[in-house]
Design a protein that fits this description.
The chain is an alpha/beta fold. The chain is 40% helix and 16% strand. The chain has 14 helices and 12 strands. The chain has a 6-stranded parallel sheet, with helices on both faces. Helix 10 packs across helix 13. The longest helix is centred in the last third of the chain and has 18 residues. It is elongated and about 60 Å long. The termini are close together. The relative contact order is 0.13.
Length: 354
């Protein structure tokens, strides 16, 4: 079967990684799955024309109900939707976008939410709960053997020190866009660094929003203890995460943060902003730590550094949590399982795939 997979494919982002992984699941079942960037299409008419090419596509799947889903409204083949997070947490609050997303979901053969909370939010705003499946992201990590911690620190602007092993590096993994709020901790962390110079914050992730990127570059250059690292491959990033004392999340909104789950899988403590998407996977003081203000972040970080039992507990529990709830094998089985036929979208008696 030939399927189109539509997603926002900015390099080195969670969406891109998720899309590549799910495409591999579908193709391992013997189908052809063509992954395309939603940004390459201006309208649903453009998408409908693409789907007519020979040999024709027989189905479609998209990540993000608005950014990618709106492009599927005029197509004549069945499709499914994977919620991205900002579509249900943010875009749905804008009336014009919500109306479009309602139509997308109304015509979808199925939808996938990463968490029960995301499914509940989608049901509240958009109804159609009967077609929404729950499938958490599958997580696997791989650490680059060639990774050099000293080179990483030096290239990130952290001054070379003979006592580099004594540095306590907090790693904020995020694409540089507003919803990730990368400067949220800057003032509080700089103040902490002035009191404790061995404690530093390194921000790392793809440069998605040019205006915000310029702001982050300028601000970090003049801020004590906060640095901006160049983007790395997934394996290099995982190696940097494993050398850090904690992985940090400051997002305003999340569907399900792959970086948080990857840190857990690597046995690295997580300190995350207390928002619904993060609280769905981070149980405070069990699988990680949550904070609701920059000052509370500093407090929780100091607790983590000073309490060995707490530190080892969240490491161990986080790793167990990912193993039990974020299996790549289970994710593969879900996306290879054909969805139930849907009467309201009865253009074909065929299921999407399988």
């Amino acid at each position: 079967m030939k399927l189109l997979f539509l997603a926002c494919l900015s390099p080195k982002t969670g969406n891109c990684t998720t899309a590549e992984r799910i495409r591999a699941h579908i193709e391992s079942a013997g189908h052809t799955c063509e992954l395309r960037d939603a940004a390459d299409f201006k309208s649903s008419t453009d998408m409908a024309n693409l789907l007519k090419q020979m040999p024709p596509f027989e189905g479609a799947i998209a990540i993000h109900l608005f950014k990618a889903g709106r492009l599927l409204l005029d197509i004549q083949v069945p499709y499914g939707i994977i919620f991205g997070g900002t579509d249900i947490n943010e875009d749905v609050k804008v009336e014009q976008k919500r109306l479009i997303m309602e139509q997308v979901l109304l015509k979808a053969r199925f939808a996938v939410a990463f968490t029960n909370k995301l499914r509940e939010e989608a049901t509240f705003w958009l109804a159609q709960s009967g077609i929404i499946y729950i499938q958490p992201q599958g997580i696997s990590t791989e650490v680059a053997e060639s990774f050099c911690w000293k080179e990483f620190l030096t290239s990130s602007g952290v001054a070379e020190r003979s006592a580099e092993e004594d540095l306590r590096v907090f790693l904020l993994v995020c694409g540089l866009r507003r919803v990730k709020d990368p400067l949220y901790l800057l003032e509080a962390f700089s103040e902490w660094h002035r009191q404790d110079p061995l404690t530093v914050l390194v921000i790392i992730g793809p440069k998605i929003d040019p205006v915000l990127t310029e702001e982050v570059e300028a601000v970090t250059k003049r801020s004590a203890g906060v640095f901006l690292a160049q983007g790395r491959s997934q394996e290099q990033l995982h190696a940097a995460m494993r050398r850090s004392v904690a992985v940090v999340n400051t997002s305003i909104s999340e569907g399900m943060s792959a970086a948080i789950l990857e840190a857990m899988d690597l046995g690295v403590p997580v300190i995350a902003r207390n928002i619904p998407g993060n609280a769905a996977v981070v149980q405070h003081e069990v699988t990680g730590l949550l904070f609701s203000s920059p000052q509370e972040f500093v407090l929780q970080s100091k607790r983590l550094l000073g309490d060995g039992n707490l530190r080892e507990g969240v490491r161990r529990n986080g790793k167990i949590y990912v193993k039990e709830h974020h299996s790549v094998v289970q994710e593969r089985e879900t996306y290879q399982r054909p969805p139930k036929p849907r009467i309201v979208y009865n253009r074909s008696t065929d299921i999407m795939w399988g």
